[in-house]
Design goal:
Shape: elongated
Number of helices: 0
Strand content: over 45%
Order of helices and strands: EEEEEEEEEEEEEEEEEEEEEEEEEEE
Length: about 325
């Protein structure tokens, strides 16, 4: 399906169940709501929200939908967010207006809920800061927003939340970097804090237009609108370092070897491979090491290792230790 309904689609979001889509139309100051036909990927327009003084739609630039159906639309033309609730009646998706809230910044261009819907983060392109809101179950935003301007924000235009709900990545189109933050919730207060490593830099980052984490949380992808090499591309960052592997033969048992891995994050899972096949899995000690003793078959072996955490994708495999067992 190709939808030609209004000019310049600048943002869209699916409902948690995947049955509704809300599209922001920048130039026409409208929202288009689509409903999916059951058991298909066919969508039909079921509602249109036209901008007005009351609902505040003014150059809507992005849409975010929480787990409980709160809909946030950033208005770059009025430095506000319009708040709606998503309603499904007789399998038809539509929106109910809640209110208009100032962001406290200028040029809001992107927004992101935490996974529980209790916190909302808005990126303000022109004022180089983030607006952080607490959100109640009725989709009411606590005001005023807490403004966060640290972390190297320069024309922030996209936000990604890690699957574990602990980290935020913000693409900076004005600096070719990605700002990184931790997010915590306590006593109904959402706190966003710049990480010491922020902003993240990369040789191939060029106007990062969109950022997203992998489903296991440790790989961060940035789609580049610009180009360093002449070719637009995708920048990929891993959060885990390669490990160091040593292999020592046993002096007491035939063909038994002790494999020691160093350099892991304490508590991370360490995976040991032989010729690409997993031969051992364990947890890194407080010093970042993991030790495995086992008997190897006669023949050629290439021993490598990688680490993995509950919030990170598997890191690169270590340099191989080659040995011949006879």
């Amino acid at each position: 399906m190709v939808l030609y309904h209004y000019q310049q689609y600048t943002g869209l979001a699916f409902s948690p169940d995947g049955n509704c889509v809300v599209v922001a139309n920048f130039f026409s100051n409208t929202l288009t709501v689509l409903t999916r036909a059951p058991n298909t990927c066919n969508f039909a327009i079921t509602a249109t929200v036209v901008g007005s003084v009351a609902n505040g739609l003014s150059n809507p630039s992005s849409v975010a939908i929480s787990q409980n159906g709160c809909v946030i639309v950033t208005n770059s033309g009025s430095n506000t967010v319009s708040v709606f609730t998503l309603i499904g009646v007789n399998d038809i998706c539509t929106l109910a207006f809640v209110g208009v809230v100032p962001t406290g910044g200028t040029g809001p261009t992107a927004s992101q809920f935490t996974s529980d819907g209790n916190c909302l983060i808005v990126a303000n392109f022109n004022s180089n800061n983030l607006s952080v809101f607490q959100v109640d179950p009725n989709c009411v935003l606590q005001t005023p927003a807490t403004l966060v301007g640290t972390g190297g924000l320069v024309n922030p235009n996209s936000i990604a939340l890690s699957p574990d709900n602990r980290c935020i990545a913000v693409g900076n189109s004005g600096a070719n970097t990605i700002a990184q933050y931790s997010i915590t919730e306590a006593n109904n207060v959402c706190t966003v804090t710049a990480l010491p490593t922020s902003p993240l830099q990369g040789a191939n980052l060029a106007i990062p237009r969109s950022v997203i984490y992998s489903t296991d949380g440790g790989c961060l992808f940035a789609a580049n609108q610009g180009s360093v090499t002449g070719v637009n591309g995708l920048s990929i960052f891993r959060s885990l370092n390669s490990l160091i592997v040593t292999v020592t033969p046993s002096s007491e048992q035939t063909r038994f070897y002790t494999i020691k891995v160093n350099g892991a994050v304490p508590g991370n899972t360490v995976i040991v491979y032989d010729n690409g096949n997993i031969i051992g899995i364990g947890i890194a000690e407080n010093d970042g090491s993991f030790t495995l003793t086992l008997q190897l078959s006669v023949g050629n072996h290439n021993i490598t290792a990688a680490q993995k955490s509950t919030t990170c994708c598997t890191g690169d495999q270590s340099a191989a230790v080659a040995l011949v067992v006879s």
